[in-house]
Amino acid sequence: NILAEIGDNGGALLVLDSIGESSISTAPRMDKFLYSGLLVRLGHYDRALDVLQKLVKPGIASPDMKLLLYCAQKSGRDDVMLARLKELRESGSRDPNNLHNEVALLGRYSPDEAIDVNKQLLAENPTDKNAQLWLSILGLRFQKHELICHDVSKLPSAIDADPRQSGRWITAVLAESGHG
Hints:
Largest sheet: none
Distance between the termini: 54 Å
Structural class: mainly alpha
């Protein structure tokens, strides 16, 4: 950690490599978390992800899970992100960022599943304006106009909307619904 502090990333990586995967596998949980944090700091997201996957409890929102999702994203491991985000959602977590990320990834790989997830979220909470917006966006993207919300009161206002969806998507949904 001291080597990383003074900017000697090469030296820090050598120290971490000397510890070895076998040593870290038997280390206490906190040591593993610190080890993965150092790997992240050094930009070795894929290696940190390997350690974190053994640490994280499925479906439990925690700092470990947040770091795992970050590493999966930085490593381009959409498969890991999708699996872990699904675990969180199925365990009852309704963190808007996680839901947005899951829906966005599902929209890329499995649009029908993304639609089903949004419909499930709306069935649980019919007043969820973000889920309504996400469903409308999917309707626009995949030309399923029956999914587009035409009741502007069920959509987030431009002020309340998640910034990742503001702008062209809100404008497009409003225009499609006859309010643009």
